Every structure is written in C-alpha cells, then in structure tokens.
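QA checklist item 7 of 12: single-chain prediction sanity check.
[x] sequence parsed
[x] length recorded as 331
[x] structure emitted
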Amino acid sequence: MKALFIGGTGTISMSITRQVAQLGWDLTIINRGHKLENVPVEVRQLTCDINNESQILSLIGPEKYDVIADFIAFVPDQVQRDISLFEGKCDQYIFISSASAYQKPLSHYAITESTPLYNPYWQYSRAKIDCEELLIAQYRKTGFPVTIVRPSHTYADGSIPLSFHSPKGPWTELERMRKGKPVIVHGDGSSLWTLTHSMDFAKGFIGLMGNVHAIGEAVHITSDESLTWNQIYESIGKALGVVPKIAHVATDTLVRLDPSLNGPLNGDKTHSVVFDNSKIKRLVPGFAATIRFDQGIKQSMDVLLKTPSLQEFDPDWDAWLEKVLAISVVM
C-alpha cells in the first residue's frame, strides 16, 4: 500500500507516520524539513513547500497513491489546491478537520458525526467547516474520494494539554506548579473534556486508510474517557510530582483580558464534550482508545522533562497570569 502525507511530523501525525512505517506501507511525506530526526528511516522524505504546485507535481510525477492525507490544510484555498493537485492521483484523500467545528453551544451533550457544524466564536473552526463543505461538494460533483477526520484534543509524548498556555508552550504553567504558584483553570473547572493520546488516535486513523467504507464520510476519533478540567490539572500535577494550586477564573474575564482566548475557550474548551465513538468503531472493528489520561500524561511529562528545547519559560506570560490573578480569582 502506498501513501503520501503532507505534514506527517506534528503532534497528531508523527504517531501515524511511525505506525504506518511499522506496518510496511510505502510512505512518502512532504514538509519543509522540520522534525525530520524522528522520522523512521524507511519513510521517503520530500522537502518542499506544498504551496509550490509546480515543484510538487515534478516531485511526485505520475505516481498514484492509495491514500493521500493532508495534516496542514486549514483554509479552503489550501483544500482547493489539493483537489487540483491530487484529483485522479489517489484512491482516498483524508482531510484532518477538527471536533471544534461542532455546534457551540451544544444542543445535546453527546456528540455524534451528525451534530451540526457551527462555531460563531472561532475563525479556525469556521475555516475547517468551509473546507469540509468544499470537499463534500467535490465528492458529490466528481466523486473525489474524501474522508474527513475530526480530532478532538490530541496530545503526544512531550506535549501537555492545558486549557490554554503561553504561545511558547506549557512550561511556564508547569514551572508555576513546581514552585507552588497558582495556575489558572477557566470557569469552575467542572466542565467535561476529552483527551486522546496520539498513539490511540493513530490506531483509528490507520484503520480508515484504504477503507472503502470511509469514502464520503466524516468521522471523529477520540477516547471514551471524560474528565473535568480540575481532574486534568490534578493528573498533570501528579505527573510532575506536585499538587497543583488551581485558581478558577471566569472565562469571560479571561477573554476580556486576552481576546485571543475567545476561540480556544468559548469556541471549544469551555463547553463539556462527550463523544459517541460508535462510527469509528463500526468503520474500524476492534478500535478502542486504551491509554488512560493519567497514564498517558505521565509518559508525556517524562519526555518533556528530558527535552530542554520544550522547557521555555515565558516571563511576559507569567506576568500576565499574575495580572489576571490579581484582578479576579475564585478559588
């Protein structure tokens, strides 16, 4: 089986790249040359800009693939580019959308693939919805063999899934935990959230690759485990060897003080999410997410603590957190 990944070295995709290589697929990845040290030696690597269409066409030539998956398409123009590049060159094109595209607020607590797509708070999610609509229209028009995959909050070794953090990463919050300083959780921390380890996500994703029953379908891949944000931060603290001092701050206050949080919070993490994974289990018999969060976060934390490049403290962000705490905190 032959596959082409655009991206392939990110939080979600690296686990897929590794597992696909282990399964013996003939895999090629296209990216700009980042994080290549972790790519299995048997994977063919093409270093270029996917937006350089003439270069892409010269590199792949007349090749045809069983699966092409784009992990770095975010807006309709990028999806239209892929349609132009790859129509007739693959038996399946997989688009990575987002579970944040689902209705906010929800009209029913259990999310299925039939839950309406509507997010007035986050442009990122609206763009993903537009991409989905473009691809489904192309499928209906020409039979373009699309499969849409909607991840929720997926984490990998070395990544720590906080509700929000510094643009430089989560290390500032982790240092605050270690020093006994408060870390902020939006709202009262009681809303439910779903976290999925990338290795579990990869199992479901690979089960969709080359799967004729997935053509023309949209499917989310998540864990069945639901945790409150308080439980999530407590598990992160335990993995770090501390009991975190959690400070609860209203989402409205956080967004007022930093409008960029409107999308990630009001458009996503403020709302309780419980996913019905019946569809992925039907399409991929035997699929189950088996890495419990308290186990997965310990593994992730161990990798982060051994990787100095991931340990970047942000003094400006730390000062902003102190400002928020001084203004309004409900412990």
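[x] summary fact logged: The first helix runs from residue 13 to 22.
[ ] second reviewer sign-off
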